[in-house]
Amino acid sequence: MLDGCTPWPEELATRFREAGYWRGETFDQLLRTWTRTHPHRTALVHGGRRLDRAELERSADRVARRLAGLGVRAGERVVLQLPNVPEFFTVFFGLQRLGAIPVLALPLHRRSEIVHLCRLSGAVAYVVPDIHQGFDHRELATEVVKECPDLRHVLVAGDQGAHLPLDGPGIAGELQPAPDDASEVALLLVSGGTTGLPKLIPRTHDDYAYNVRASAELCGFGPDTVYLAALPVAHNFALGCPGVLGALHAGGTAVLTDEPDPDAAFALVERERVTVSALVPPTARMWAAATEWGEADLSSLRLLQVGGARLLPEHAAQVRGAFGPVLQQVFGMAEGLLNYTEPDAPEQVVLHTQGRPLSPDDELRIVDEDDRDVPPGTTGRLLTRGPYTLRGYYRADEHNATAFTADGHYRTGDLVRRTPTGHLVVEGRVKEQINRGGDKVAAAEVEEQLAHHPAVLDTAVVPVPDDLLGERTCAFVVPRPGATAPDRNEAAAFLRERGLAPYKIPDRVETLGALPVTAVGKTDKKALTALARELATEGARRK
Ligand code: OOB
């Protein structure tokens, strides 16, 4: 396995192969099979563009030749930052054809995240759009290159500016065949993070293909599936749960959009006869509200997946009320473990639980703070291992020592309880992460960035409840003696300047004389969370 990764123990790997989870197929081999079986079935739709499987494969082959011509080799990493456009998949599969490894950055990542991802992965190339949603990624790339000596090439899908065009000349003749070791890393996903900087999650061909295939089977995907990707396809949910890859695997079609708002999305559902989509809770609620006045024909929808953050039972009822019994709750993580409510699950299960583990070999433990199992039905910390859950983050030995138990369970940081039917209910979390409607913000990352402000002595970032997003971020700031703490506008400008992704900029900034501490002298985040909540309700009352 790629240097810097933790493989599964050999006896487990053998078991997962014998059980038929790991089938020894790489994503390049899978794409070839999909193309061979249905060359002219539509694979991807984007605006007025439609690519059948044969075209997708040809385009991927062109990208592979292009990158090979630039010297990109098997095992090398390439940071891929594209929105929901067909090029995301032509580059993804082009890299698979070379055996090179995509690092899936999110479209909203900025200099801080991209420089970190490039350095951590030792990426040799970075693929960007030209301008996306008003932001010029070519300018970002110019800054990134200066800070990342290993980065040899920037490729632009669109107008190249000062960089190289993605669509340029490549090598002709035979491509060196991609390595066919399916136990090798196929892609690196970015974790939501709990520490200072995002971590990379190695996903092998074997484990991720199983993730996709088993999800597609559970969700009833088939040749008539039309999947609307309205969340970023760089995120695990829309990529492989079952996502675009699941639709392709099942012989179906994926429709790509960057506009999840009901106006745009409903028009696509009607036009393309979309059968399934995946949303985060705030978007699902907007969709539900919009059915009351919209006139689009949504009768083709057979499954509406909602996940990424807590969906309250009353909101689940609204969504189910608006769309009928098509709602599915999904509790997943880029690290692996996926839980789904079954498409035929009783209403109570769909409204009140976040689903059941995907694989019979997902091992779950619910424990107290000393890693002792709690009694059945009690809330505790979720630990897990299994055939598609990582055994270690990439190049992160120190972090891995605490993020996993000695016997290889991943500490999810989520607080859950299990119902008698084996479904999980997510009750909260112990990890210091704010879940902003599905966008994950590591408190430590924002704190570290804010600490660079010259007037800031100390800082702590905590969640505040929010009706739409579930949570927003509140930063408490202690000014240096004699200095004035930055207010929200100044803090936002400062963090933007430092290149932090926009969704990580605190929604509120409050000044304190000192941070409260616990009996052992640690910052008392519980007290701060309570204070943030108080300030927010007070603010709302005054309005
Ligand atoms: C998905 O993946 P990530 O990596 O962005 O975030 C994982 C974390 C979980 O550990 C949990 O804290 C939270 O997001 N989460 C949920 C949830 N789904 C995810 N919390 C409550 N209820 C849910 N249904 O978010 C993700 C990956 C694949 C499929 C779906 C979501």
TrEMBL record:
Mind telling me which InterPro entries this protein's record contains? AMP-bd_C, AMP-bd_C_sf, AMP-dep_synth/lig_dom, ATP-dep_AMP-bd_enzyme
Q: Which CDD domains match?
A: 23DHB-AMP_lg
Ranges for domain AMP-dependent synthetase/ligase come to 32-394
Query: Is-annotated flag, keyword Iron-sulfur?
Result: no
Read off the Gene3D superfamilies from this record. 3.30.300.30, 3.40.50.980, Luciferase, Domain 3
Alphabetized, the UniProt keywords read:
ATP-binding, Ligase, Nucleotide-binding
Every AMP-binding enzyme C-terminal domain range: 445-522
Which PANTHER family does the record cross-reference, listed alphabetically? Answer: AMP-DEPENDENT SYNTHETASE AND LIGASE, LONG-CHAIN-FATTY-ACID--COA LIGASE
Q: What is this protein called?
A: 2,3-dihydroxybenzoate-AMP ligase
Question: Which source organism?
Answer: Streptomyces regalis
